[in-house]
């Protein structure tokens, strides 16, 4: 699962794939509808590969959480981000049992499930990608 070029742009729904860099920002393509948008340098943009979730001991990268969902769901979709609070929190606690309940809000949990389901629908959560990445990382070491 490669999250290096997947973006979350503040103020815009869904996820975006980084296409090219320009002088004044970059061009990204929406993973939901395929529309291309120009994003200025002033926009608040987060790479999914840089996002982590607070746990009681340390921060857990989003990639590890997505991999846990893939393992639990056998590559299928996770619960919708529109499920009830109790369902989402219980499911998230199964995946990340030691998440920091004071610093991880329901809105954060909803984003994780929404983002995972977008990636899963696009086929970007497959186990083949994960295993080929770990092979590349091992070869690089």
From TrEMBL:
Q: Which residues form the DUF6852 domain?
A: 51-119
Q: Which organism is it from?
A: Flavobacterium aurantiibacter
Query: What is this protein's name?
Result: Uncharacterized protein
Every DUF5606 domain range: 3-48
InterPro entries annotated for this entry? Answer: BVU_3817-like_C_sf, BVU_3817_N_sf, DUF5606, DUF6852
Q: Source organism's superkingdom?
A: Bacteria
Q: From which residue to which does the signal peptide run?
A: none
Q: Which Gene3D superfamilies match?
A: 1.10.10.1650, 2.30.30.730
């Amino acid at each position: 699962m490669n999250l290096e070029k997947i973006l979350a742009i503040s103020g815009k729904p869904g996820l975006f794939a980084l296409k090219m860099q320009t002088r004044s920002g970059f061009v990204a393509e929406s993973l939901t509808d395929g529309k291309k948008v120009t994003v200025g340098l002033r926009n608040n943009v987060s790479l999914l590969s840089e996002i982590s979730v607070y746990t009681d001991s340390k921060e857990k990268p989003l990639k590890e959480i997505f991999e846990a969902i893939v393992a639990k769901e056998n590559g299928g979709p996770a619960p919708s981000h529109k499920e009830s609070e109790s369902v989402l929190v219980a499911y998230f606690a199964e995946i990340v049992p030691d998440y920091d309940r004071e610093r991880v809000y329901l809105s954060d949990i909803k984003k994780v499930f929404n983002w995972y389901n977008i990636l899963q629908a696009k086929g970007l959560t497959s186990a083949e990608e994960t295993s080929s990445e770990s092979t590349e990382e091992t070869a690089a070491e």
